[in-house]
């Protein structure tokens, strides 16, 4: 979950970076439109001058404005290319982060499934252990009763003597034979 949260934060940061770049791009395009409007205003101003003055000033202004516009267009194209490159890189990183998030989620689901299976197996083993203990207790109890009956039968027979101390299984077997 921590890795997913981290990946989501990184995606949000990169998406905000993309939004910032796009707004800068929009601002540059607006500035270009503003320049075009200024040129139109200058052009309208020159329309009111005499034809010869107008020709000279228009030519000089147009050349100057063309140079300025070419410079601005070159700068904006350069910035736009950089921003487009950065946007592509960010989108690629976002895709990778999304893929990592999906992979992490799948791993978490597999881990949870494995954990459930292991827990189920552990519960089954505990149940079997309990059944085995119960069976062992029953067998031990039957064995002890059988042993006591064998001891009673051996030592209640004619000619047998009572044991002096606690008997081992081998002693009981010898006495029985």
From TrEMBL:
Record keywords, A-Z: Coiled coil
Coiled-coil stretches: 4-38, 73-128
Keyword Coiled coil: yes
Name of the protein: CCD27 protein
